[in-house]
Amino acid sequence: MFYKNIAAGKFISRPNRFIANVEIDGKVQVVHVKNTGRCRELLLPGSTVYCEKSDNPNRKTAYDLVAVEKGKLLINMDSQAPNVAFSEFIHDGSFKDGIEYIARERKYKNSRFDFYFKRKGKEYFAEVKGVTLEDEGVVLFPDAPTERGVKHLTELEDAVKNGYGGCVVFVVQLKEAKYFTPNRKTHPEFADKLKEVQKAGIEIFAYTCNVTPNSISLLSQIPVVI
Question: Does residue 111 have a pLDDT over 90?
């Protein structure tokens, strides 16, 4: 996945979940934040951020904030990027061999899963989660309680009980990580549910990404510790 018209800036403040004040080329710009999560450990005053300039001159915000530097790490913050990057990954055959058909956003009962695919005659649902929270090389999800995430796991478990295959793919939006683990401290219910669905036969994957100021792509699979 590639961005265009990227400009580096300095983060100043975040008045709400959707916008931030960023200094770009000596001018303070109100930019759209493409991640509504808390991201408190990332968006610190003075941090270097990377913003994509919009092609639409009529937009209220001229830029989208897509990445931030955290020390030596460059972290992509675009909440839409994990699905796009995983779509590229699965279409080029890097996820599983023998996939015959791929579709985005397929509904099952009361949930809409991110991906549906067929492999060796079996139908699968896959749910993709972006991960930006990092602590000394360990990456965690979620960074805030997610009842929606628990609901998706519950219905994915139901789909597996009814004969489908199921996958949860954690797309780690940075390059280097030791392993992935659910954030039990922030949301123990999600951690317990992830452990439960793994025992029920749902496959759980975590991949780091190659992140640059103007691109993101899946890179390497890392261990999942539940």
Answer: no
Count of domains observed in the chain: 2
Q: How far apart are CA 166 and CA 38, in angstroms?
A: 28
**pLDDT tens digits for range 127-162:** 999 999 999 999 999 998 999 999 999 999 999 999
Q: Which residues, in sequence order, are CB contacts of 192 under 8 Å at separation 6+?
A: none
pLDDT tens, position by position, 57-77:
889 999 999 999 999 999 999
Q: What secondary structure letter does DSSP report for 71?
A: T
Which residue type, as a one-letter code, is found at position 79? S
Judge if 144 and 37 occupy the same domain.
no
Residue 156 corresponds to which tokens in the numbers above?
Answer: 């994915």
Q: Which domain holds residue 155?
A: 81-221
Query: pTM (2 decimals)?
Result: 0.95
Q: Which two tokens stand for residue 110?
A: 């009361």
Task: Compute the distance between CA of residue 42 and CA of residue 31 in angstroms, rounded to an integer.
Answer: 16
Q: How far apart are CA 1 and CA 130, in angstroms?
A: 14
CA 20 to chain centre: 20
**Residue 191 burial (CB count, 10 A):** 19
